[in-house]
Amino acid sequence: MRKRIRAAIEADLSDAPLDAVGRATLRDFAALRQEPEAVEVQFSGGVMGQGWAVTRPNGPYLVVYLPQAGCFSLCVEGPFGPLDIGVHGNAIGCFGSV
Fold it and tell me: For residue 76, what pLDDT is reported?
């Protein structure tokens, strides 16, 4: 799973825009990127699911890969762990939504 997640992130990085904002986002993402770590993610209605955190928190936000959906999610740290806030897509796009 970690290999699959790393490959998805590398693909996102190669497709990222290289304008000033894109370069700043990539720099900030690289500073917070971590090896994928298994986490429990809370979804609407209190439903829990498996995810893989790929960044350390950026304030209250972190990017998590959701294997069941095949995409990344911007989550907010809550009292019970990461909470999915409905922002989904590629890793860089989710990270840049903050």
Answer: 97
